[in-house]
Amino acid sequence: MVSVDALDNPKERASYVITKIRYLVTAEDGGNDLKTDKKLRAAISAFQQTFKEIKTDKLVSYYACALNKGLIFFQGWMYISENYLSFYSYIFGFENKISVELKNIKSIEKVKTKGGSSDDGLSVETKSGSNFKFTNLFNRNEAYEVLLQ
C-alpha cells in the first residue's frame, strides 16, 4: 500500500490525504455529513437505482469517465463502493453496466490514453481474466488510491 511519504509530488500527496480522509469520515460516521452534499446524494441515488443487487453497499466515491471497448468509448460514471467497482453508461440506446467485486480484482494500473499523450486512464484486470480500461478519468490518482484501499 502506498504511504504519503512515498509520494514526491505535492499535488499527489494532497490528493492522497484528501481521499484517505473522505474514506475514513465515510466509514466512521456512516456518511451522514457527506450525504448533505447534493451531488453526492444524487450519485448515491443513481448508484442504488442502477445497481439494485448491491444497493445496500455504501458508496465511497464516484467519477465521470469513459469505458474503452476497442474503438468505442462509452462515457458514464464509475462508482466505487465498499465492496464493488461499478460502471454505468447509457448512450444512444446502448447500456453498459459493469459491477466487479473488489476482492475479485487482480490488478489495477494507471495507464496513458489517447495514444500515450494523456495520463487519465486506469486498467482493471479481474481474477477471471476480464480487463476493463477506463479513460477520461480526470481524478485518476484519487480513484486509484480509493481502489487500493
Automatic annotation (TrEMBL):
SMART domains: GRAM
Domain called GRAM: residue spans: 45-112
Identification of the protein by name: TBC1 domain family member 9
Superkingdom assignment: Eukaryota
InterPro entries cross-referenced by the UniProt entry: GRAM (IPR004182), PH-like_dom_sf (IPR011993)
